[in-house]
């Protein structure tokens, strides 16, 4: 996945069964600055041609595939060892309310599947909207599977580019929603002022008085 700030592509190798989710390896793949800026231009509402949007979709899909293959090489695994890749893509437009709610992600899953040879599953957000949801956040289902308790009510706060919470209660459907900006404003500010994609270890913030 790539997040709101677009400073990298993060890949996680996980073993999942009915009871556990175990992270086995991870890899952070750099995002080329030219690609990052082109995607940010789309996200910020700049006019683009369908050709440009299609090319960005392909280029990002290829980058996702490249990141997966590097992780497999690092872990000395074969593509046959992997059951599936899940990729929700990079959101460039999200409008989940109105007469025709919609959301648009790029990062072509067909490129990922073709270049890795691994079954690739995606387009989660549009499916959620089609079923009456808002397409975001996606993480409450994961939190429910990992952190649900039979007797306790729990709230999980996830601070990414956009912050969101998951509400976990016994005998109740899982619920979750976005609460507002998370790290995206901090990332945008340091990018503008320092030319850095994010404030690593809060080093710049620590210089404040």
From TrEMBL:
- State what protein this is by name: Uncharacterized protein
Q: Which Gene3D superfamilies match?
A: 3.30.420.40
* Organism classification: Eukaryota, Metazoa, Ecdysozoa, Arthropoda, Hexapoda
Provide the species name: Rhodnius prolixus (Triatomid bug)
Mention one GO molecular function. Answer: ATP binding
Known SUPFAM superfamilies for this protein?
Actin-like ATPase domain (SSF53067)
Which biological processes are named by the entry's GO terms?
amino sugar metabolic process; peptidoglycan turnover
Pfam families associated with the record: AnmK (PF03702)
Write down the InterPro entries for this protein, in alphabetical order: Anhydro_N_Ac-Mur_kinase, ATPase_NBD
């Amino acid at each position: 996945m790539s997040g709101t700030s677009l400073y990298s592509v993060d890949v996680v190798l996980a073993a999942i069964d009915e009871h556990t989710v175990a992270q086995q390896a991870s890899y952070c793949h750099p995002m080329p600055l030219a690609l990052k800026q082109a995607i940010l231009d789309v996200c910020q509402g700049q006019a683009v041609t369908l050709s440009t949007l299609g090319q960005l979709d392909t280029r990002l899909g290829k980058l996702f595939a490249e990141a997966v293959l590097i992780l497999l090489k690092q872990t000395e695994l074969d593509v046959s060892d992997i059951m599936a890749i899940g990729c929700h893509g990079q959101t460039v437009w999200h409008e989940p309310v109105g007469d025709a709610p919609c959301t648009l992600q790029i990062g072509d899953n067909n490129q990922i599947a073709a270049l890795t040879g691994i079954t690739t599953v995606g387009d989660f957000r549009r499916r959620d909207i089609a079923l009456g949801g808002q397409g975001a956040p996606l993480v409450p289902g994961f939190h429910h599977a990992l952190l649900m308790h039979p007797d306790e009510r729990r709230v999980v706060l996830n601070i990414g580019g956009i912050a969101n919470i998951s509400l976990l209660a016994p005998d109740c459907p899982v619920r979750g929603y976005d609460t507002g900006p998370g790290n995206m404003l901090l990332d945008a500010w340091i990018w503008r002022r320092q030319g850095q994609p994010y404030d690593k270890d809060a080093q710049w913030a620590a210089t404040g008085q």
